[in-house]
Amino acid sequence: MKIGKISVSLICLLLLQGFAFSQQDILQTFDEGVLNWTNLTIYVTGKGRPDPELSPAQYRLSALISARKDATESILEILKNINLTSELRVGQLIEKSEAIKAQIEKIIDDLQIMGKPRHMLDGTVEIDVEFHLFDEFLNVVLPQNGDKLAEFISDESSGEDNALENQVYSYTGLIVDCRGLQVDFALAPKVLDEQGQEVYGPGWVNHKIALTAGIVQYVRDEDKAFARVGEVPIKIKGLHITGTGRCDVIIANADAVRLLNKDNLNFLNMCKVAFLVE
Fold first, then answer.
1. pLDDT at 25
2. Sheet architecture: strand order including 112-119
3. Which of 73, 97, 145, 224 is deepest in the core (most CB within 10 A)?
4. Pairing state of beta strands 173-177 and 273-276?
5. Concatenated DSSP letters of 7-41
6. Phi-psi label, residue 159: left if phi above 0, alpha if psi -120 to 50, beta otherwise
7. Domain spans, the chain
8. Which band of pLDDT confidence, cut at 50, 70 and 90, is reported for residue 6?
């Protein structure tokens, strides 16, 4: 499998196949298809050949079934190569648990076909498919969340004022500037202080919100992030990246202290965080 940045020629090909992307979308290419990190969606084209041994009535249907099988196999292969965290790929998680593998395969079976199948002169069928990572898939693979947030609230204060809904805050979200750091993408990246302590990541978020929004959004333009982080985000420059997968971002201790203010817990809990990349 080859993984890389998307080329102009590939974008043109994908557009011809019915996949529509904007120049601001963060795309990661694989031999099997494309993962759009901006909307956490995988796009693949499944190809199938008909079984010549079947009757004419079943001939075209067999090609469609074959194309669907090819698409599901391509999606699974892409999923295996996605970084879950900076230390763990989804494929490694699948290898560790037959139950998780079975759940993921079941979810893939519900993939959505885009448009109509394309029937070629030689009987081959092509289908364009998209697979969303939100909700069911993230519910299977995302680590349990909220422990860091609960610990922080417990340590910092007590009583009724601890409730997130009672907090008043001036910032609406967080933008971490990762430009120039060559950060790689992950479903559950972390922001760490200079001692390696997690100041944002799975431990700070509401699990239900993370399932529908993702833990972070990757963007190329600050304007693209405002729908996620609000009009008054706190902006922090990443110092460097860390972790085996090069997905976690180190920020200055002073910025970590500024971020970990009880007034900011609400937007951290709601995953209103974006990573600004090239």
1. 87
2. 3-5, 27-30, 33-36, 41-48, 125-132, 112-119
3. 145
4. parallel
5. PHHHHHHHHHTT----TTS-EEEETTEEEETTTTE
6. left
7. 3-140, 144-276
8. very low
